[in-house]
Amino acid sequence: MLYGILEGACNALDIERQDVDGTLYYYSGNRHSPALVLFDDVPGGAGHVRNIAEEANLLAALERTLEIVSRCDCGGERADTSCYGCLRNYSNQYCHDVLKRGYVIEFLANLLQ
Q1: Where are the chain's structural domains?
Q2: Which end of the chain has less Cβ packing within 10 Å, N or C?
Q3: How many Cβ atoms sit within 10 Å of the Cβ of residue 89?
């Protein structure tokens, strides 16, 4: 979800992808329900995350995320992988093997109904 939202937000709001990033934060060490934390990755900040957090912009970002991962065909019908066209980029190469667009599609389709 994290990398999907970052891709969708940057695409929907015309933000350079290298200008925002994110991480997972585990409340009380609970690895089963992490929070997604977005941050400006520009010295001094650029206000991108504040812009993404506005309700209309967040909705546009989530819709664009769903569009991006849904139109990709990596992983076949099961969507059990990802590629550089949907979720992967150079900075998240450490976790490419666990990025699966099917999870993002399922979550966002339910959320946006």
Answers
A1: 2-73+104-111
A2: C
A3: 14
